[in-house]
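Quick one, T. Sequence first:
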Amino acid sequence: MRNEPWIFDRPRPWQTSTTMKRSSGCIGAAARPKAGDLWEEHDLVFATQRGRPMERSEDYKVWKSILKRAGVRDARLHDARHTAGTLLVEQGVHIRVVQEILGHARVTTTERYTHVAGAMMRDASERMGSALWGDT
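Structure tokens:
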């Protein structure tokens, strides 16, 4: 059991601070009622079954377990950031909003993180064709 208090680091001066609304489906929401009086509120998105911060290696273990249960290929947890950024862009979220969500200081980093899907390329080509030659 941990005796010293938890220390939550503030972002470095060059890092952005991101505030996002937690959905009711986040990890802590399901665990809170079960924990009852043992729940510790730290306003965390990812927490243990009692609301405490996760150990550094715990997210890795949980990620690998999720991949295995889902029956998908093995991937790094970091790859999920690329996927999240790409999915947000595909849903029409502005690149600057994606930048803030991912916590990037520069939009060029976000642009490298996101990948353009084939459907987006087709749509862009069709729009360019319509702009140049009109609807056919």
